[in-house]
Amino acid sequence: MGESSCDVESRVRNASLRSRIMSPQEAAKIVKDGMCVGCSGFTPSGYPKAVPLAIAERVRKGERLQITLWTGASVGPELDGELTEAGAIRRRFPYQTEERIRKAINDGRVSFQDLHLSMTAQNMRYGFYGNMDLAIVEAVAITEEGHLILSTSVGNSPTFVKQAKEVIVEVNLTQPLELEGLHDIYIPDDPPSRKPIPIVKVSDRVGTPYIECGTDKIAAIVFCDIPDKQRPLSSIDETSRRMAQNLLDLLDLEVKAARLPKELLPLQSGVGSVANAVMAGLMEWPTDGLLVYTEVIQDSVLDLFDAGKLDFASGTSFTPSPQGAQRLYSNLTEYRKKVLLRPQEISNHPEVIRRLGVISMNTAIEVDIYGHVNSTMVSGTHMMNGIGGSGDFARNAYLSIFLCPSTAKGGAVSRVVPFCCHVDHTEHDVDVVVTEHGVADLRGLSPRERARQIVEKCAHPDYRPLLEDYMRKAESEGGHEPHLLDECFSKRLRER
Question: Is residue 285 domain-shared with residue 152, that is, in the same domain?
Fold first, then answer.
């Protein structure tokens, strides 16, 4: 790559650090077998690309090299996918979405622990998982003091840099310098001297616009021209529109009951096409002045900004589609007035979520008749992505809402089931279930009452008779939460 002197000077502002600029192949030699490596990135945004590709190349040429890989959440194919394919990942934390690493996890070739995203950084600082040898962080620039100005995500990068013995910085020339100033880097104190996190409004800036690193810790600087691999979002289909309308109806009832202000409370939404579609439904909300306190800022958030509906958004990552990225970069000067990117430890922190009264809206793989939610495991055995931040928000939200279509595989499988084959969120953390068929408000209800609400309001009509039959037979056997354990996982009740 040929960098101009202007690029070098504006991107690496400390002259003495410029001697550490090297090729990805040279930087990759710093990585040794058995290392614990923390990489920037949260979703396919702001993750290192050139150095991971060079590490994969080393392994493909026959070197023995396997690492424990930490990120913020899912990352792009150059990191998770290529390293997995090369056989370079021994252990992975805390969340993933890439097809190749998902297969390796389910095959047992990569050891994976699923973790709440708010807890990963603090557990690393506590020393629960050993020492971090190396951090590889994407930045748009390095300051005169050797501090790192991040790109399109923050994730766990501040703690990785703090804990690592050495840091490799990928300066990505495709990421605009105008991202500088968007970040609010704050690392909470650890016990026993922990102080309250001083966020009382979504827009509160409490940290620095850079990660404190220092020149001594930077072992290598690599220039990169590989852009983020943004994923296209599915078009908003009729099922998503109906779910969004059901959600709006629920929120309207909450306003009329004086349980929510007309501007609502800060909104959180999960990642992906369904979550994006549901957020987009808020374009129909009658009142402006909305706020977002979430993990990922997707296209729907930009839509709400452009429509004048949204005043401010706080997250840990920009996660736009390719079209959304073009919009973001073309109008970054305006968007940056209304957005902050924080460490995921802060964007997902229970203390802040509880204080702000966040309305949590997350998606589910399946929901059972008593209100337990499965967010992670297909058929109770095969990891999909991970719990992500859904548990952080669900347990601490003012209102915890889970959304999913009533069926999967073209109607062949019911997503409303007698008993989830894996439970990530218990009935205690689920206030409302929404499908395209309706809304089940579970607040204040006993298990038997919840079951009737979920089956009547949320299950697909084709599956209601089977679920109702199961309920009647289970209730005849008695119990606070009646089940027929020899029948509840029957394919008869889940598939047509």
Answer: no
